[in-house]
TrEMBL record:
It comes from the Bacteria. InterPro entries: Leucine_aapep/pepB (IPR011356), Macro_dom-like (IPR043472), Peptidase_M17_C (IPR000819), Peptidase_M17_N (IPR008283). Belongs to the peptidase M17 family. It comes from Rhodonellum psychrophilum GCM71 = DSM 17998. This is Leucyl aminopeptidase. The lineage of its organism: Bacteria, Pseudomonadati, Bacteroidota, Cytophagia, Cytophagales.
């Protein structure tokens, strides 16, 4: 039985209360002291009395040292980050604390940032602490008491004049990522297309962006035929979400599209393995919706229009068939070779609708699209397709700086014949065991109206996976921070 919507929708999620502490020497309780690896550790000015042997602790990556001083009523937790730690390393180290050692935080904590640590260090640390409060057991009944993070105070000692601003930014980014976690991890009988459209409406009201939703009837009037074809095997109403954030005097207009297949059986070309994980096939939609929350919450000076086509790809006597020829919003006809190549169909209508009706300067789509991407990059990197060199470089830099890597693959015209059909304008799948991600990207390119600044990011291997934070595969939130980081630099 699905959990009521209002119990799971928390875009204004309450978490630890953050304050800047100018007198950290007076703090009692948990004190977090992060260190980069060194033979001679340098302690923060207010904690020079601590002297831990380098044999016991030298700041090596993934190490900790816990010291309790009953006289001062303090518990010191020294956190090793290794040499020259990047953003992801810092974030993960701090996420590990609230995820696995939450009892230490019952009376609050003080995070002491050393002078030489950059502002990005503070952001990564606070973000990690917030992300670590996430728990996967949404439906578990347990008598084990849970820490009420709303009542936990996080104090920050930092010499940075912007410490409060940085911490607030980090909390807003993390809260949006927590929403992405929720949307992807919740089961498909909860997160339906209608759930996502309700989520978008509520987030729009909360954070300040407009949302319009086309249901089946409205989508039919708009001739979103490829979008509708995928949905016709399911009793669940498809939802074509149009979200717009429009600040005063925007620098640029960015268009986003996110694949929202809330569950993918494969259709009549039914999946023979891994179907249990197909609730994650709306990872692109979740990333785009989470980005809209963060963009509006941080009040970025960029106009953003997001299209999120949401469907369930199911099987009944109304389901579309292999060999069917369907229409599309762009007016192109499509021969269906494989009903499990459905994501590119809804993205095709999303892209052409966005470009025709909203004319953004740059278009970026995110989708858990092909297993081919996983075969190429594994679970560490997403595939990037674009002919815009500047956009490609900016996406790579934006992702590298926060640990959400993307790497380019070609969009050469030599692959164009792979999507050519004898009976229709295009076919949705080439049916060959190679270049699957590239051919899918070439299919999408056909619906971009030769837009000069379009990028497709295939996040099939990065949106959902294994980590130390759960015993089963779970959401990573990949893509949301990447988009935010890119838009902030425009």
């Amino acid at each position: 039985m699905p959990v009521p919507f209002d119990l799971l929708f928390t875009p204004f999620q309450k978490n630890m209360k953050i304050s800047i502490d100018r007198l950290p020497q007076n703090h009692k309780g948990l004190i977090l002291l992060p260190f980069e690896e060194s033979e001679s550790l340098r302690y923060p000015t207010d904690f020079q009395n601590l002297k831990i042997s380098s044999v016991l602790f030298s700041g090596k990556k993934d190490t900790q040292f816990l010291l309790e001083d009953s006289a001062s009523e303090r518990t010191y937790l020294l956190i090793g980050l290794g040499k020259n730690p990047d953003y992801k390393t810092i974030q993960t180290a701090f996420r590990r604390l609230t995820a696995k050692q939450s009892r230490l935080f019952e009376k609050g904590a003080l995070l002491a940032i050393q002078e030489e640590m950059k502002d990005s260090f503070l952001e990564a640390a606070v973000s990690g602490l917030y992300l670590g409060t996430y728990r996967l057991g949404h439906f578990k009944k347990t008598e084990e008491p849970k820490l009420d993070w709303e009542n936990v105070s996080l104090r920050i000692s930092s010499s940075s004049e912007d410490a409060e601003k940085i911490a607030e930014r980090a909390s807003k980014i993390a809260n949006a990522q927590l929403q992405v976690f929720n949307l992807v991890d919740l089961p498909s009988n909860t997160v339906t297309p209608e759930y996502l459209s309700d989520w978008a409406r509520n987030a729009g009201k909360t954070f300040g962006f407009e949302v319009k939703v086309l249901g089946r009837a409205e989508a039919k009037e708009q001739h979103l035929d490829a979008f509708l074809a995928v949905s016709q095997g399911s009793h669940r109403e498809p939802q074509f979400i149009i979200a717009q954030y429009n600040p005063e005097n925007p620098k640029k207009h960015i268009g986003l599209v996110g694949k929202g297949v809330t569950f993918d059986t494969g259709g009549l070309n039914i999946k023979t393995a891994g179907m249990v994980h197909m609730k994650c096939d709306m990872g692109g939609a979740a990333a785009v919706l989470g980005a809209m929350q963060a963009i509006a919450d941080l009040k970025l000076p960029v106009k953003v229009t997001a299209i999120v086509p949401c469907v369930e790809n199911s099987v009944d006597n109304q389901a579309f068939l292999p060999s069917d020829v369907i229409g599309s919003y762009a007016g192109k006809t499509i021969e269906i070779i494989d009903t499990d190549a459905e994501g590119r169909l809804i993205l095709a209508d999303g892209l052409s609708y966005l470009i025709k009706n909203h004319q953004p300067d740059t278009v970026i789509d995110l989708a858990t699209l092909t297993g081919s991407t996983v075969g190429t990059f594994g679970y560490e990197c997403a595939a990037l397709f674009t002919n815009d060199i500047d956009l490609s470089q900016n996406l790579q830099k934006s992702g590298e700086s926060i640990g959400e890597r993307v790497w380019p693959l070609p969009l050469w015209d030599v692959y164009q014949p792979e999507i050519e059909s004898e009976i229709a304008d295009l076919k949705n799948y080439h049916g060959k065991p190679f270049a699957g991600a590239i051919v899918a990207a070439k299919f999408l390119e056909a619906f971009t109206e030769n837009h000069g600044s379009w990028a497709h990011i295939d996040i099939a291997g990065t949106a959902f996976g294994d980590s130390e934070f759960a015993k089963t595969k779970h959401a990573t939130g990949f893509g949301m921070h990447l988009l935010l980081n890119l838009l902030e630099k425009i």
